[in-house]
TrEMBL record:
InterPro entries, alphabetized: LpoB
The keyword Repeat appears for this protein: no
Record protein name field: Penicillin-binding protein activator LpoB
Signal peptide region: 1-22
Length: 214
């Protein structure tokens, strides 16, 4: 009996030891891998937005309307130059001390009024009044224009002063010069004439008369 107990004890011990060995040989339990805390996601940087300049709609320019109000035309005055000049020219031709056959320079009529008038028309009328006068030979318009250009003046310019008129008359070989001007109110001007001797500048006749508007 003792021997049987001994084998049983040995067998039990062996089973015990084999259990211990089995426990030792079992792999150690794998530690549970704890998930590492995720790194907080970096917030996305906003893409910088470049502000766009709003397009300003082109404003239409101011609409220009033609002025429907008709501008009044400047008043054109017409004068009876011939009615004033004929009597004066007749008196001048009858003045004493004037030798026939001399050359006469007719200067342009000067406008000395307080307004605008057509002095060219007055000058032309004066030359027509002296045409075929039987006493003077008139300096031609072409000769007078050339003489004015030599002084740097426009052919339409009046000589302006008596001294210039006398100087031009000497240049063209005239013995007399007729200096004329319209003075006073432009609505009722006065025509003045002076006949001068070129050699001395002496005024040998003068006259004046009213000019009426037509």
């Amino acid at each position: 009996m003792t021997k049987i107990h001994r084998y049983a004890l040995v067998a039990a011990l062996a089973i015990f030891l084999s259990g211990c060995v089995a426990q030792r040989e079992q792999p150690a339990p794998v530690d549970e891998v704890k998930p590492t805390p995720e790194q907080p996601a970096q917030p996305e940087q906003p893409v910088p937005v470049v502000p766009t300049v709003p397009t300003v709609p082109q404003q239409p320019g101011p609409i220009e309307h033609e002025d429907q109000t008709a501008q009044p035309a400047p008043r054109v005055r017409h004068y009876d130059w011939n009615g004033a000049m004929q009597p004066m020219v007749g008196k001048m031709l009858q003045a004493g001390g004037i030798a026939a056959g001399n050359v006469l320079l007719v200067d342009s009529v000067n406008n000395r009024t307080n307004g605008s008038l057509n002095a060219g028309e007055a000058t032309e009328t004066l030359r027509n009044a002296l045409a075929n006068n039987g006493k003077f030979t008139l300096v031609s318009v072409q000769q007078l224009s050339l003489a004015k250009q030599q002084l740097g003046l426009s052919p339409q310019d009046s000589l302006g002063t008596r001294s210039k008129a006398i100087g031009i008359a000497r240049n063209v070989g005239a013995q007399y010069v007729l200096y004329s001007s319209a003075t006073g109110n432009v609505n009722a001007p006065t025509l003045q004439m002076q006949l001068m001797l070129v050699q001395t500048g002496e005024i040998i006749w003068s006259g004046k008369g009213a000019v009426q508007q037509k």
